[in-house]
Every structure is written in C-alpha cells, then in structure tokens.
Design a protein that fits this description.
This protein has 204 residues and is α/β, with parallel strands linked by helices. 54% of the residues lie in helices and 16% in strands. A five-stranded parallel sheet has the order 2-3-1-4-5, with helices on both faces. Helix 2 (31-41) runs parallel beside helix 9 (188-202).
Length: 204
Amino acid sequence: MFTSEHNELLLYTTEMKQCHLITSTSFSSQKGFEDILVEIFDLTKLNIQELLINKLRNDSNSDLANDIKKQVEKGELVSTTLITELIREKIIEIKNEILIIGYPRTKEQLDYLTNLLSENGFEIIQLWILELNNIERLIEGKDQQVSTAMIKKFDQTKYQNKEISELIDCPEITTKMEFEYPMEWDTYKIRSKIKDVYNTIYSK
C-alpha cells in the first residue's frame, strides 16, 4: 500500500519517467488495447512472460537464465528477485515511459518493483484494470467442464484485479476498463477514455 505522501508523488512529480501497469485478461489477446496505450502515451511495452521466454531462448547461457531454468525445472514459480533482475536489465535501456503487463501480482512484487523503478528514474503513474462484463456470452455453447474451468479462471482474474488495486491503493491513478465479449479494442469509446486519462495526467 502506498502512503499518502507516495500517492502525492505519483500524482504530481513530473521529473520522473512514467510507468503504467496493466492487468492481464484471461480470455482474449489484449494487444489491441496495449497498442493504443503505447500510441497515445508513447510507451515501451514490458511483458514479463515474454521477457522470461526471450531470456531463456536468446540468452540461455547467462547466469540469470540459468537461475530461472533451475526454478522452472523444479516446478517452482520464478522468484520475485529473479523477475526484478530481468526487468532491471531492460529498463536501463529504455529512454521513454514504460507499460508493464500482468505484473506485479503480490505485495512483495510491488515493493521490489517500486524500488527498482525509483532507482532508475521511473514512477508508477497509472494502473489499468481490464475486466470482462459478459462471461455468459463467452461460455455460450461450451460443454460443462470447459464452462466451469473458464468461470473459475474468470473469478481468479477478478480477484487478482481487486488485489492489485488494493495494493496500489490510489484510486486517483486507477482506471477500470470494462469490456464485452467479443472484444473490440480500437473503438471511439475506448480511445476517448484513454485520452481522458492522458489529459488528466498532463493537465496537472
């Protein structure tokens, strides 16, 4: 949870570079939405899952890749420490603002990420929460087993969204984007809402 002083820093500091966080949807590619954010805010995307895959594929002999592989081979989740180092490698190369996708999900991850960002001249300026409204449309025509699994995943996603929102604990920088299935990201309504957030941030 951020302190009130930290919240003020998030809202009014202009010297730091911006970091946007976005939750991940469970049922559809959200690339269209991410691309609009990148376009309007001039962001560089950091997808943690893609960073992990690329590290293991393209830099497999590095110490960091070997440490990640050891945890994966044991069936463990990749530790917050290793993910932090993975992000560190990337953000030192980035000159503009960033969009971090599907991360953090826990208080430990948020604490590590906030410290890392601060050390490198970034601040969390916006949390985007994506949430599906009509799960019943999505599961239409699916058999019972598939429907049950999808509903369970849907509930988990809503819970994770609620958790990260409570961890950030700054309503002023949190924007929930509700959408319907099938998704149409690049619409006037969505662009207008994103631009409203943009104007709010840059009018301070």
